[in-house]
């Protein structure tokens, strides 16, 4: 064991990237706390930070490669494991073609810039188009809206919460999530500060969330009706005055079209459907218009629903027509140290949608990436390009993607599966070989994506804090080693090309590429400069960027992009359908908890819940109508499946809606997480069908899925099963 040491680093379990002070002995964390000298997080950390200590001590965490043996696993050497994965991928590409190999990467991969460089490289050398990521269950609609409105899918608006006077939050819970596409450590305090400065905060959510508790006002909204609310807000704003383009004067197209659209949605028309009174909507519109500056911010609740792209578009439209885009305190566009939007512009890769739709479902791709909603169908549907082998990297789609049960079956039927992960999770339990990944503090990290959407410009580099097993390696390196092994097994010219590509990429290494990106980026940094600032660098507040960017690119922002206008036909169908909806069904929404991180960290000792917090939150009136009692058990069902959970009565739920936490369901046979399985809960995605999508973007629409709820053991009602599709 080494001498006790202190290292400054950052957490990085979520986007907030809170600075930490780690006291350790080179292998184990002795204590970890917030770094008061981190310019962005200023000492803040959330309860999850202790997971870094737990990940070093967890007996269930993988440290050696595993090979399946019947229903059990055996540890094997790295050389054998890589060879076996290489052989599996080589065989399937040879027999069934390159597209027969699917690659799925999950949310944690996004926290490693090196992995983000290696993954597309890996897939393109292998020649597969079947690449999926957690983004198609998350931010795709936001990215597609940016492509349609600003012409670049990487130009994502960041609400300038540190300087705004009015924050309108739709479908986000930053007091718990700490911000999403909004890197702002201690986000709850920053939002509370808006009110301390005399500003106002309004939260619109079917659940009275932890963020709502910090706001001046919370409004319940019926799930998936944000588009209607936004159209009604625009109706009032545009009906009572001219567009105020602000910084974007002369750079806006589509004003007349937007006006014509909004005219058809007076608050009185949408009030009953949205669940907010017409006078309240009109008042909110006037308040937003009158505040200076104001900003509307939407996240998961507005993207992972049937009208995710259109909701994101209309949020932009509201900010644009009130002059709040590209303005301090409004919707800003960062100019980060690694400038993804600028890079995309220079490379002519601003994004695309629907150029290579999913073979099995016809759902659109986003910039060549396939939608996770199609994953099971791509494995089940016969024909050329059917996925027969899968590699998952930091992903758990059995729990994180709607249609969990369907995917479970499809995975069991694959010819070959390999995974890179820290655990035998609900997905990786189907693999033939699992390669162990490193914990965050064992990796060399540079937050690129996280700081691309930060509320201030910032940068940092964190070399590994803890020493890992000498054989273990980072994900990017594992990917290249797999490529090399697959090349050996494949043989011939193709195999030689794979090996040569892997060798060249290894020789360059990700840090050289990142250093180059930093040097050529807008802040002219370098890895060496970042290493001289172990607490991280604050590079100042966001500056207006969009207008200059659009002028330089010779483009204008689109207030009423054609695909979104066409999508309103679907909104109208939804309105018509709504009237015919079956009696008795409830709308399901997801929630996140402070001590959980998506589907993982459930096995961390210090984060283990004291009680079953996987509860169905339901309004007392809805519960009474169904004979449900507080702490009783409920059966939640839909066409996709049925789960059982504990009931929690709360008037914090909008009547007609229920909420389940996302990330639970650790009771599946074969997953290896002893602690997590003591409080397994149930997976929300087992009752959401995977054909519920925002058809415009191909994104899974879990929010608002219709379900039936009854006490466990009660006789089934004589009604047809609930259909979840919305297209
Ligand atoms: N119903 C519903 N579904 C949802 C959501 C919701 O709100 N409601 N949220 C969606 C969202 S926003 C997201 S991002 C997705 C997340 O979905 P996923 O990305 O599939 O799930 P995660 O739990 O984030 O991470 C998956 C795995 O990564 C492993 N891991 C952690 N760090 C590393 C690493 O450095 N390397 C490797 N190789 N493995 C690592 C963990 O052990 C874990 O098993 O789920 C989506 N699904
Ligand atoms: N503690 C913790 N932090 C996390 C995570 C975690 O699992 N745990 N996950 C991380 C990840 S990957 C992400 S992407 C972010 C997500 O960060 P956020 O988007 O801030 O968090 P969510 O909890 O998904 O918030 C979505 C909200 O939308 C509401 N909602 C559902 N349907 C609708 C609707 O139709 N309209 C409206 N207006 N609201 C609706 C839900 O009730 C919920 O409150 O959090 C990140 N941070
Ligand atoms: S908010 Fe929590 S999980 Fe996210 S980076 Fe900070 S300490 Fe880590
Ligand atoms: Mo996410």
Strand order of the largest sheet: 5-4-17-16-15-6-7
Radius of gyration (Å): 25 Å
Class computed from helices, strands and strand pairing:
alpha/beta
List of distinct ligands in this structure: ligand MGD, iron/sulfur cluster, molybdenum atom
Strand share of the residues? 15-25%
Largest sheet: 7 strands, mixed
Supply the CATH class of the domain at 140-337 and 556-565: Alpha Beta
Helix content: 25-40%
The residue ranges in which pLDDT falls below 50 over 5 or more consecutive positions are 719-727
Can you tell me the CATH superfamily of the domain at 140-337 and 556-565? Dimethylsulfoxide Reductase, domain 2
Architecture of the domain at 140-337 and 556-565, according to CATH?
3-Layer(aba) Sandwich
Classify the fold: give the CATH topology of the domain at 140-337 and 556-565: Dimethylsulfoxide Reductase, domain 2
Amino-to-carboxy terminus distance: 59 Å
What is the total tally of β strands? 28
Mean pLDDT: 95
Number of helices: 24
- Overall, the morphology is globular
Describe the protein in words.
The chain is of the alpha/beta class and 727 residues long. Among the domains are: 5-57, N-terminal domain of TfIIb (Single Sheet); 140-337 and 556-565, Dimethylsulfoxide Reductase, domain 2, CATH 3.40.228.10; 581-711, Barwin-like endoglucanases (Beta Barrel), CATH 2.40.40. The protein contains 24 helices and 28 strands. The chain has a seven-stranded mixed sheet with strand order 5-4-17-16-15-6-7, with helices on one face. A hairpin with a 4-residue loop joins strand 26 and strand 27. Mean pLDDT is 95; it is low at 719-727. It binds ligand MGD (2 copies), iron/sulfur cluster (SF4) and molybdenum atom. Iron/sulfur cluster binds at residues 11-14, 16-18, 45-46, 48-49, 178, 185.
């Amino acid at each position: 064991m080494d001498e006790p040491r202190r290292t400054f680093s950052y957490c990085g379990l979520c986007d907030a990237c809170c600075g930490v002070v780690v006291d350790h002995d080179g292998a184990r964390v002795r204590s970890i706390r917030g770094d008061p000298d981190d310019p962005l997080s200023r000492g803040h950390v959330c309860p999850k930070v202790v997971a870094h200590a737990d990940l070093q001590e967890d007996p269930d965490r993988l440290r050696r490669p595993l090979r399946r043996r019947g229903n059990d696993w055996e540890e094997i050497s790295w050389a054998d494991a890589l060879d076996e994965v290489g052989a599996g991928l080589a065989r399937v590409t040879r027999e069934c073609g390159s597209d027969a190999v699917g690659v799925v990467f999950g949310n944690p991969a996004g926290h490693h810039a090196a992995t983000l460089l290696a993954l597309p490289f890996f897939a393109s050398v292998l020649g597969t188009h079947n690449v999926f990521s957690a983004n198609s269950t998350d931010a795709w609609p936001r990215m597609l809206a940016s492509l349609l409105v600003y012409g670049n899918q990487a130009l994502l608006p960041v609400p300038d919460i540190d300087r705004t006077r009015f924050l309108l939050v739709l479908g986000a819970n930053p007091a718990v999530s700490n911000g999403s596409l909004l890197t702002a450590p201690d986000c709850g305090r920053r939002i509370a500060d808006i009110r301390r400065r005399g500003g106002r905060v309004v939260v619109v959510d079917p659940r009275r969330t932890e963020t709502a508790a910090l706001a001046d006002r919370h409004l319940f909204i019926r799930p998936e009706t944000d588009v209607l609310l936004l159209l009604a807000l625009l109706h009032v704003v545009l009906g009572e005055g001219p567009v105020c383009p602000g910084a974007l004067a002369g750079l806006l197209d589509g004003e007349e079209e937007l006006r014509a659209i909004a005219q058809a949605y007076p608050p009185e028309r949408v009030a009953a459907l949205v669940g907010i009174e017409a006078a309240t909507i009109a008042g909110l519109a006037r308040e937003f218009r009158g505040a200076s500056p104001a900003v509307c911010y939407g996240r998961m609740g507005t993207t992972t629903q049937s009208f995710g792209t259109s909701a994101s578009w209309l949020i932009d439209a509201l900010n644009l027509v009130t002059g709040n885009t590209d303005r301090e305190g409004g919707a800003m566009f960062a100019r980060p140290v690694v400038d993804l939007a600028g890079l995309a512009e220079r490379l002519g890769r601003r994004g695309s949608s629907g150029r290579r739709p999913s073979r099995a479902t016809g759902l659109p791709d986003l910039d060549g990436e396939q939608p996770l909603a199609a994953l099971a169908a791509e494995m089940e549907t016969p024909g050329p390009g059917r996925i027969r082998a899968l590699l998952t990297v930091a992903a758990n789609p059995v729990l994180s993607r709607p249609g969990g049960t369907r995917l479970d079956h499809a995975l069991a039927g694959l010819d070959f599966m390999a995974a890179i992960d820290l655990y035998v999770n609900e997905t990786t339990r189907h693999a033939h070989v699992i390669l162990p990944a490193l914990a965050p503090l064992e990796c060399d990290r540079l937050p690129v994506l996280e700081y691309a959407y930060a509320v201030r410009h910032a940068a940092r580099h964190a070399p590994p804090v803890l020493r890992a097993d000498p054989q273990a390696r980072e994900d990017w390196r594992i990917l290249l080693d797999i490529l090399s092994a697959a090349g050996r097994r494949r043989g011939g010219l193709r195999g030689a090309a794979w090996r040569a590509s892997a060798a060249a990429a290894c020789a360059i290494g990700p840090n050289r590429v990142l250093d180059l990106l930093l040097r050529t980026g807008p802040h002219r940094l370098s890895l060496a400069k970042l290493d001289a600032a172990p607490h991280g660098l604050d590079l100042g507040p966001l500056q207006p960027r969009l207008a200059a960017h659009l002028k330089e690119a010779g483009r204008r922002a689109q207030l009423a992009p054609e695909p979104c206008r066409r999508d309103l036909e679907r909104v109208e169908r939804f309105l018509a359908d709504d009237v015919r909806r079956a009696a008795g069904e409830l709308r399901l929404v997801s929630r996140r908890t402070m001590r959980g991180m998506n589907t993982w960290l459930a096995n961390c000792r210090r984060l283990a819940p004291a009680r079953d917090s996987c509860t169905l939150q339901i309004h007392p009136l809805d519960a009474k109508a169904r004979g449900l009692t507080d702490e009783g058990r409920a059966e939640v069902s839909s066409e996709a499946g049925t789960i059982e959970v504990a009931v929690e009565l709360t008037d914090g739920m909008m009547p007609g809606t229920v909420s389940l936490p996302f990330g639970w369901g650790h009771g599946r046979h074969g997953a290896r997480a002893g602690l997590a399985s003591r409080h397994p809960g149930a997976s929300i995605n087992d009752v959401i069908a995977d054909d519920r999508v925002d058809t415009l973007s191909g994104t899974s629409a879990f929010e608002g899925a219709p379900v039936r709820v009854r006490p466990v053991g009660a006789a089934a009602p004589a009604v047809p099963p609930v259909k979840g599709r919305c297209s």
